[in-house]
Amino acid sequence: MSGPDPDSRPGRTGRRPGRTDTRGTILAAARKRFADNGFDKTSIRAVATDAGVDPALVHHYFGTKQELFAAAVELPMDPNIVLQAIAAAPVDELGETIVRVVLGVWDSAAGPGLVATMRSVIGGGDSGDSSLARSFLLEIVLKRVRERIATPEDDGRFRVAMAISQMGGLLLTRKLLELPPLTEASVDQLVAAVGPTLQRYLTGDIGSGTTSSAGPTAKGQRPNGIRKG
């Protein structure tokens, strides 16, 4: 005998009338929580409490907290595409990897939705939506990069901020302003041109006379900034 349908089980504030209403209620609660508290400080249990349902029902509809966040912010792409590529790339190839993966996603069918999100963030848009987009960028994607390059002497925050300023400028001019030389360039061209700059920001000498010990800054350069031969 099969168990009861998750929607027919009573939640903390009573029975939910149907799948759409339950899912929508959870999403509304999640959006508010994520916008107010950020990704790291929001729990599935807190969202469930706000929505008046059992935490198991949140997992039933959305799986993990990361998947719930992606649904709440209405990302038109799977964030795991970017996160898995960052996790798999050697530290000394992070710059090229980030450029290639990010441009690949923005040039895909998900691109128009991402452009709309970027316009919302830049233009102010709805404060809740902008806050969610910033939270995704700062607390999920960039945190993963920073964890890869951080050292006891350098937490990587400034390095990651410099890298995102470079990528943000590239995306702005290629996708929003549609500057012809950049819109006409292939992904390979842009990876070759921008990847080394991102790599220098992440692991190279950025003006302080020091180099991150997390990995080499470029091909042929050792982690401490001492070139071979």
From TrEMBL:
- Keyword line: DNA-binding
Mind telling me which SUPFAM superfamilies this protein's record contains?
Homeodomain-like (SSF46689), Tetracyclin repressor-like, C-terminal domain (SSF48498)
Start-end of Basic and acidic residues biased regions: 1-10
Q: Which InterPro entries match?
A: Homeodomain-like_sf, HTH-type_TetR-like_transc_reg, HTH_TetR, Tet_transcr_reg_TetR-rel_C_sf, TetR_C_16
Annotated region Disordered: the residues are 1-23, 205-229
Q: Which top-rank group of organisms is this from?
A: Bacteria
- Pfam families assigned to the protein according to its UniProt record, in alphabetical order: TetR_C_16, TetR_N
Tell me where in this chain the HTH tetR-type domain is found.
Answer: 20-80
**MF annotations from Gene Ontology:** DNA-binding transcription factor activity; transcription cis-regulatory region binding
Provide the residue ranges listed under DNA-binding region in this record: 43-62
- This protein is called TetR family transcriptional regulator
Q: Which source organism does the UniProt entry give?
A: Nocardia arthritidis
